[in-house]
Amino acid sequence: MMRIWNSIVGKLWATILLLVSFVLFIVTLFLLEFLDNFHTKQAEESLQREAATISKIVNDRNGQTNDSIHQIIEDILDLETNAIVVDRQGDILYSFHTSSSKDEIEEKLLSESVLFESPESGKQKMKEMILPSLTEKDVMEQFLILSYPFKQASGEEASVLMYQSLDAVHRTTKSTTNIVFLSAFIAFLLTTFFAFFLSTRITLPLRKMKQAAFELSKGNFDTHLPVAQKDEIGQLATAFNQMGRQLKYNIELIKQEKEQLSSILTSMTDAVVTFNQDYSILLKNPQAELLLKKWYGFNEKKNHPLPKEVFHMLEHAISFAEEVEDELELGGQFYVISISPLYSENSIRGAVAVFRDMTEQHKLDKLRSDFIANVSHELRTPISMLQGYSEAIIDDVVSSEEERMEMVQIIHDESKRMSRLVTDLLNLARMESGYIQLHKEPLSIVEFLERMVTKFSQVAKDAEVDLSLDTEEMNTLLVTADEDRLEQVFTNLIDNAIRHTPDGGAVTLGVYKSAGMLDITVADTGVGIPEKDLPFVFERFYKADKARTRGKGGTGLGLAIAKNIMEAHDGSILATRGDEKGTIFICSLPFDAINK
């Protein structure tokens, strides 16, 4: 029931019923009032005519008997109209009444002396009285009383009292009321039919539109409404279908833009974070999520994941609507931070921050500056010696041919040293640029290492160092590699190991299988590289402490070149401290490059 009242059909039905009921009520009131007045007036006029006729008949008797007069007058009067003729003293001259309540009615009428006392000819009186019913016993009804005065033929005053029951008027009013109620019932039926007719023509399409709107709200943008009409309802269905298509297009467009933005943010190397006006985080890419987790550990302001320096920049950007950019060092890392305010019309709704990690750039800048400094340092000594000894020869400072030849030899050695340095730099630059070429062939790693031991046996003997090979019975082990490049690697490693090992020490080469890799080790019993220097031994121009060097040092590029050669073989090289003393260099090759 509540569903009907909450629907358009119920409301329209109730509105029409109320409207029709109100109109019928007003019309009924006016109609009943009009009919009551009309019938009352008609009854008064009828009584007046009949009273005038009765008065004439009474005056013009012309020898007629009372019975004939009664007969004539009773024919004039209808069933609900009666009359009496009363003289001035209140005596009844004639009575035209046949009802059982005749005496009672006449008594009532005669008790109203104002109706017939001092009658004036032509002065009529009309009055409504409650009198006994003409048809029902012990029932009182309303009567219309007319007093019509006239002069008799004898010249005496008399009055004709006409009284008629108003029940006829009431019956007319009742009939009119019944007609009105019948009309109201017919209007109710027609309104109900009309309302349910509208339900099929108006509300049914509206219900379908409501269901379609719910489908749209669930994301089903393919919902289509049939257009069966050309009126406003049909136009509304057409507009709804167009709206659904447009919504689908806009949602797809927004989805594509969102996916594109998400892909861009995800693929960015920079960290991007979007903040709300209350500094809460709205959006962040994976790089930003990792960065925020890193910052949370050393952030003093635990209620916000940003360091205080970055938080102050964010506050400034949102408070003053200004773009802020700065470079900060946070937790040993360097970041370029740019924060820009976001606007919603004319008000600020938040800010977007971009964090670019410049740590590697700083390292490269430092390496570049260190490289220039190291190259300058390495070249300065030989150039100074070349310049000094050459000037000594030019100025003829030497006193003997033997001294001259010694200076020439020094100049020659220093020039060769400069040549080696330049050659190593060129080789290293080519390797790091990817221009290294490898000529891989099957190689017996044990035989290769035995040749390396034989090559450095005399050098080790002169340095009083024991050089040995430990193969663990792997004499048949073959690898696919560039023999010349590997010889370059192990020449550098073995030479460094011998030079950094004191008299009576040992240098041991070994071959082992470990974790899917083939490990070739070069271990010495020297002083060893300090733990803090191990991560930097493969950088350019790294040299061991001078206290660990026997004789003249190298260029400082050998280990950097060795690292590039091993990586070109899809392998790796690392340095560790020995169990007791010395240093161990481990060169690893993958098993997929090994042929047994």
What is the topology?
Layout: H1 2-5, H2 8-59, H3 66-76, E1 81-87, E2 92-96, H4 102-111, E3 125-132, E4 140-151, E5 157-165, H5 167-217, H6 232-267, E6 271-276, E7 281-284, H7 286-298, H8 308-320, E8 324-330, E9 333-344, E10 347-357, H9 359-394, H10 401-432, E11 441-444, H11 445-462, E12 466-470, E13 478-481, H12 483-499, E14 506-514, E15 517-524, H13 558-568, E16 572-577, E17 583-590, E18 594-595
Parallel strand pairs: 12-14
Antiparallel strand pairs: 1-2, 1-5, 3-4, 4-5, 6-7, 6-10, 8-9, 9-10, 11-13, 13-18, 14-15, 15-17, 16-17
Provide a concise account of the structure shown:
Helix content is 51%, strand content 21%. The chain is of the alpha+beta class.
What does this structure look like?
With 596 residues, the chain is of the alpha+beta class. 51% of the residues lie in helices and 21% in strands. It has 13 helices and 18 strands. Helix 5 packs parallel to helix 6, helix 9 runs antiparallel to helix 10 and helix 11 runs parallel beside helix 12. About 1% of the residues have low confidence.
Q: How many E-type strands?
A: 18
Structural class by SSE content: alpha+beta
Poorly predicted ranges (pLDDT <50, ≥5 residues)?
A: 546-552
Q: Gyration radius, to the nearest Å?
A: 65 Å
Notable features of this structure?
alpha+beta, 13 helices, 596 residues, 5-stranded antiparallel sheet
